Amino acid sequence: MGGQIAQRLDWVHRHRRDSTIASRCERARRDLSPTSLSAAKTAATQAVSEAQAGSFDLGLAWLASAELAGLDSDGPCLTEHLTAAITAARGLSPPSRVLLLDAVIAVGLRFGENSAATQASADQLALRRDLAERLATP
Q1: Rounded to whole angstroms, how far apart are CA atoms 84 and 113?
Q2: b vs e for 96-132, b when ≥16 Cβ sit within 10 Å of the residue's Cβ?
Q3: Are 40 and 47 spatial neighbours (Cβ–Cβ below 8 Å)?
Q4: Tens-digit pLDDT profile for residues 10-62
Q5: Shortest CA distance to 28 belongs to which of 37, 16, 39, 40?
Q6: What is the DSSP letter of 123?
Q7: Taking the complete model, does pTM exceed 0.90, yes or no?
Q8: Please, is 136 exposed, middle or buried when counting C-beta atoms within 10 Å of its C-beta (0-12, 13-18, 19+)?
């Protein structure tokens, strides 16, 4: 449980060692167990509230929150948090955006939130088409 969160947080930890938000998300993942799901959700919520608008950290915090909602079988919360992660991704650089949208797709498909996965896929496709146009590649 929490394996996808662990992989994403490990990547962030390697690339953003100074990130307080990544540390809070890491704490949420570390605290994750069937008996401490509420504590992990609290830590993820705190990470969302402390993340800077327009940052990768905000998208990551929303994503961690979404995955925890999925583990808790909280469908409305899962949808809301995945949508927030997609919105956060729109303000990021293309590489960060692709990374975050890939994770949204994975979490959405894992927990049956196909509408969010579809939206993330559409955003990612539009981004890739735009990049191909800019680079004049087929």
Answers
A1: 14
A2: bbbbbbebbbbbbeebebeebbebbbebbeebeeeee
A3: no
A4: 555 555 544 555 566 666 666 555 557 777 787 788 888 888 888 888 898 89
A5: 40
A6: H
A7: no
A8: exposed
